[in-house]
Amino acid sequence: MLHAWTVEQIRAAESAALARTGDQELMRRAAGHVAWAVCDRLDPVTGAEAVLLVGAGNNGGDALHAGALLRRRGMAVTAVLLDPGRAHAGGLAAFRARRGRVLAVDGAGGGAVAGVLERADVVVDGIVGIGARGPLRPDAARWVDLVPAAALRVAVDVPSGLDPDTGTHAGPVFTADVTVTVGGLKPGLLLADDVAGTVLVADVGFAPKPADARVEVLTDLDVEALLPDPRTGSDKYTGGVPGIVAGSAQYPGAALLCVGGAVRVRPGMVRYAGPQAAAVVARWPEVVAGDDPSRAGQVQAWVAGPGMGTDEAALDRLRTVVDADAPVLVDADGLTLLARHPELLAARRDRPTVLTPHEREFARIFPDLDLADRLGAVRRAAALAGVTVLLKGHRTLVAEPGGTVTVNTTGSGWLATAGSGDVLSGVIGSLLAAGLSPATAAAAGAHLHGRAGERAAALRAAGAHQLWDLLRVPVQR
Ligand SMILES: NC(=O)C1=CN([C@@H]2O[C@H](COP(=O)(O)OP(=O)(O)OC[C@H]3O[C@@H](n4cnc5c(N)ncnc54)[C@H](OP(=O)(O)O)[C@@H]3O)[C@@H](O)[C@H]2O)[C@@H](O)CC1
Ligand SMILES: Nc1ncnc2c1ncn2[C@@H]1O[C@H](COP(=O)(O)OP(=O)(O)O)[C@@H](O)[C@H]1O
Ligand SMILES: [K+]
Fold first, then answer.
1. Theoretical Cys-Cys bridge with 422: which of 125, 248, 306, 412, CB 3.0 to 4.6 Å?
2. Ligand of minimum distance to the alpha carbon of 175
3. Boundary residue ending a domain (191, 210, 229)
4. Cα–Cα distance measured from residue 282 to residue 337, given in angstroms and rounded to the nearest whole number
């Protein structure tokens, strides 16, 4: 499992390291990682032109030390000092000692800076790191806007303009190809991967404690370990039976897609209870199907919602499922019904329950929560409702009522296709029935669904039903 920490947590861990090691040494180590990230991506290194955007804090100090190392590798390096009187003294001395070129924005004027930026093969962003407050000020933001898209763009610690705790950026932001982040991951880098690019963690000799992290990422190995193969002596009930309430005359495909997710993610038995029983069995002969969830037999977890409609019959089925003792996942039309009947959601408080809204569904159930900050919104939603909330999107987030959020980092745009969410809810329902906690089932399901989406991208396999075949392909190491 990977972990991410808030700025406050990083600062706390850093202060102990500073007392032990000294800030110059930590900075030199950070700079070594930045220089390595640059050289690793350039060919040839010697003779390439780098520009450092240097703010007045330690982030600028990191950039200057990195610039000194790049000079040693034979690069032409220009440091643009955004606040010349306050540039980091030790970093500037190291840079000057390597005969780096220094431009002060006030002295040189904008034209000279724009000129060197235009020619740059590499731009290193040392404007601000975790010491930033609020959106980038205009005097810094103007340089970010001039960074050429063709240059290799390397952010030190955090892309300037990006809030490391939330991943939001209210104004201009340095868009990085690579972010070399110091000491530990920050949540914002996981959420705004379009801004942070590839994230490398620079180990400078301290790390916050994993147990303190409130933001996590599952790896392939974590997910595999959660899903053991059947053992000798297993029978079809051993792993737990999911029950699916999905589909309607209007949306028959949703029943097939959702059931398919449950059938294909692990062996065992799947039950279906809804108006598409005949169609489900025609496509999935292994499924035990009927139309009434109250007469479905033993079920260890329910999934209700995909394409089920929002009429009285659908509401009756949803009530049956909500009344059940078993864990419940509610998706799609089921969420629309929950928004209309908040007493149904209240009835699941503190019971194993997962809601899987996309942003429009989320806004219907939690109209007061601001989705500009998705991490904050999903965390508050889980706390308000007292259930696990999975907020779908390019970066799907899973929040438990206790406050921990798992960020899903698998996936591809090929998942943005009708019915792909139906497959996801079937997958998670099966994992819930297997006994995983709501948050773990939701996060592991999103991870597997995302890997299937990556395989769909590689194969150009359009159409949500293609995900069935791609769900449990063995991981290659
Ligand atoms: N973690 C670690 O172990 C290590 C961390 N290290 C590094 O230190 C970095 C943190 O350094 P830091 O504390 O000096 O703050 P930093 O990010 O440079 O920003 C402060 C400057 O930004 C300015 N400023 C503020 N807001 C602004 C805005 N909106 N728009 C524009 N400017 C704004 C602010 O100006 P002021 O408000 O003072 O006028 C001040 O000049 C960290 O990210 C990492 O790179 C490594 O060196 C060693 C190990
Ligand atoms: N651009 C994207 N990148 C990665 N995943 C995406 C993207 N767009 C959508 N997804 C994923 O695809 C699924 C779509 O679900 P949903 O919106 O419920 O679709 P439907 O209701 O048609 O089944 C979600 O798991 C979501 O996270
Ligand atoms: K930066």
1. 306
2. 3
3. 210
4. 29
477 within a domain of the structure (yes/no): no
Distance 129 CA to ligand 1 centre (A): 5
Strand partners, 216: 3, 406
By residue range, what is the domain housing residue 442?
Answer: 220-470
Residue 79: CB within 6 Å of ligand 1?
A: no
Contact in structure between 171 and 161 (CB atoms under 8 Å): yes
Q: Please check if 310 is assigned to a binding site.
A: no
CB 121 within 8 A of CB 170: no
CB neighbourhood size of 267 (10 A) = 14
Ligand 2 neighbours by CB, cut-off 6 Å = 332, 358, 392-394, 396, 411-413, 415-416, 418-422, 424, 449
Does any domain span residue 476? no
Q: Which residues pair with 125 in a beta bridge?
A: 53, 155
Q: State the alpha helices, DSSP H only, in 235-275.
A: 252-265
Which atom of ligand 2 is closest in space to residue 420's alpha carbon? Answer: 23
| 146 and 245 fall within a common domain | no
User: Does 110 appear as a known binding residue?
Assistant: no
Nearest of 354, 353, 308, 367 to residue 332 by alpha carbon: 308
What CATH number did the domain enclosing 290 receive? 3.40.1190.20
3-state secondary structure 159-215: CCCCCCCCCCCCCCCCCCCEEEEECCECHHHHHCHHHHCEEEEECCCCCCCHHHCCE
Q: What's phi and psi for 108, nearest 5 deg?
A: -75, -25
pLDDT tens string 260-276: 999 999 999 999 999 99
Q: In this structure, which residues have their CB less than 5 angstroms from ion ligand 3?
A: 125, 129, 155-156, 160
CA–CA separation, 363 and 437 (whole Å): 25
| Residue 444 DSSP SS3 | helix
Q: Which residues contact 462 (CB under 8 A, 6 or more apart)?
A: 414, 417, 456
Q: Are residues 230 and 110 in the same domain?
A: no
pTM for the whole structure: 0.96
- Residues 159 and 291 occupy one common structural domain: no
pLDDT in tens, 282-330: 999 999 999 999 999 999 999 999 999 999 999 999 999 999 999 999 9
Which residue among 26, 59, 81 has the greatest number of ligand 1 atoms within 8 angstroms of its CB, and so is best to mutate? 59
Number of compact structural domains in the chain = 2
Per-residue buried b or exposed e for 270-302, using 16+ beta carbons within 10 Å of the residue's own CB: bbbbbbbbebbeebbeebbbebebeebeebbbb
pLDDT of residue 317: 98
Contact 152, 42 (CB under 8 A): yes
Domain final residue, candidates 186, 210, 234: 210
Closest to 432 measured CA to CA, from 359, 336, 327? 327
Give this complex's ipTM. Answer: 0.95
Both 263 and 195 in one domain: the answer is no
